[in-house]
Amino acid sequence: MTVSELPPTKDEIDPKNSPNELTHDVVFGEITEDGPNYRNVGFVGTIILMMKTQIGLGVLSIPTALDTLGIVPGVICLCVIACICTWSNYIIGTFKLNHREVYGIDDAGALMFGPTGRGVLSVAFCLYWVFVSGSGILGVSIGFNAVSSHGACTAVFSAVAAILGFTLSSVRTLGRITWLAWVGLPCILTAVMIVTVAVGIQDRPAAAPKADEPWVSDYKIIGHPSFTEAITAVCSLVFAFSGTPGFFAIVSEMRDPRKYTPALLVCQAGVTAIYIVIGCVVYYYCGSYVSSPALGSAGGDVKKICYGFALPGLIVTTTICSHIPAKYIFVHILRGSRHLNSNSVTHWVTWLSCTSGIAIVAYLIASSVPVFDSLVSLIGALLGTLMCFQPMGCMWLYDNWAKGRKSSRYWIPMVCWSVFVVLIGCFITVAGTYGSIVGIIDSYRESGGSAAFSCADNSNST
Questions:
Q1: Does the CA dihedral 238-290-310-372 come out positive or negative?
Q2: Could you read off the pLDDT of 92-126 as tens digits, one per residue?
Q3: Which of 101, 161, 442, 452 has the most CB atoms within 10 Å of its CB?
Q4: Which GO terms describe its cellular component (predicted)?
């Protein structure tokens, strides 16, 4: 079977075999009927996977970020981050076409900076996705608590979420996981639309004080946060778009990577529009009483309905965010070996060890930092920008620096833009990590240090 629509190079086709029976991929090696087809994601599937890597946990923190920054500064920051991340995502596609041997961000780091670049970016990549998987487990535990009215210990719900994530993420190819994204994306969108409509028709949000007089939202056009509060909110917005590092794996498993850019533009336009509409409407009606995650803002039975719809989407988010780092580790362990594309015992033991290891570590993270906003902002600051900003600026410079200003009239502006992306990413990383850590310390002080591995209901945060 032919798994790539790209014109084959002399290194991609084994002359001893018919193209209809065997294709050689630079990353995955020989792909045959006897093993998993790693190049089987179509155009529409690509859009759905891209959107699902982003729409999930991030959208649930946007109203809270707008509460900190104010609607106008918040939307401006959201649009700026969307533009930077869209450009970064575009660079991933062009870099992959220019360097077919690249599978992950660490391969790009190795091309640009040698073994040091590979080491730093590979560790950051794995940590990032494990932390995102942890936030997914935390989101699922919140959903279980909300639907069941805290029917069991939160630590138990987190363990159930980790087991579900491990089981579903053990499906070996993104092509076979695409159907989960088709389920998860409509579910999470339905949930956020329900809460958006509900807060608009209710007389007050669930967390607002009860009184006889009509309630008026205290939303802010322009907020006045402290520096740490502002940078923490910005990091939450970065997290909302930080599916970027997963796009390396998606383009690597596309049947035709040349369709990557059109798929990306559809994805980013849809994601940005959804974020702006939902974030603004929910915050406008809830004001400072918006819940975190936002699905709890309407309260009561609506809260249960929202989380009932959202749970499949949150589980799929956990699945994809566990699958990507597990696949990354798996490919790097068996790359160049016959076991990568076979159904051997070594293949399955290695694969299941990767998925189970990711699930265990993610569970520990979710239980250790059980405050949704704090975990989201920490991921966005410490690892999100390092995965979405700095490497992509360097990737453009790597491919285009030697061409010089004579190659294009846009060369100098693009150099300036690439350097800007690197510098702003470094600033957010340092400042945002500081702000997020301060927020986590404050939350532990409020709980008396008893937040980790707690049985308490975590679905009533505001």
A1: positive
A2: 999 998 998 888 898 999 999 999 999 999 998 88
A3: 161
A4: membrane
Instruction: Output the domain CATH number for residue 75.
Output: 1.10.4160.10
323 and 358 belong to one structural domain? yes
- Give the pLDDT mean for 402-420: 87
Q: Is residue 460 part of a domain?
A: no
> Do both 283 and 305 map to the same domain?
yes
Q: Which pLDDT does position 252 carry in this prediction?
A: 87
Burial 271-310 (b: 16+ CB within 10 A, else e): bbebbbebbbbbbbbbbbbbbbbbbbbbbeebbbbbbbbb
Question: 258: pLDDT confidence band, cut at 50, 70 and 90?
Answer: confident
Phi, psi of 30, deg, nearest 5: -80, 125
Residues 23, 131, single domain; the answer is no
pLDDT at residue 214 above 80? Answer: no
Range of the domain at 1: 1-34
Alpha carbon distance 77, 293 (integer Å): 20
Provide CB contacts within 8 A for 153, sequence distance 6+.
455
